[in-house]
Design goal:
By secondary structure, the chain is mainly alpha-helical. The chain has two helices and no strands.
């Protein structure tokens, strides 16, 4: 019985460590996702502004390059 309790305590300690490690991974991923969302939003805003500055941008992207 005592060996069984010891085994269960070891398993519990291992699981607790795994949960802590995974929690850290999730926290880092959450920060990374927030950063990527922010960067994506900035790029979208920058592209929208660039299109406004060039007069819509649609015609420029539909033209064939001069080497064609």
């Amino acid at each position: 019985m005592n060996a069984r309790v010891t085994q269960l305590e070891e398993q519990l300690a291992h699981l607790a460590r795994t949960v802590e490690d995974l929690s850290g991974v999730i926290a880092r991923q959450d920060r990374d996702i927030d950063q990527l969302r922010h960067r994506t939003q900035m790029l979208m805003e920058r592209e929208a502004q660039r299109e406004l500055d060039t007069g819509g941008g649609g015609a420029a992207t539909e033209q064939k390059p001069p080497h064609w």
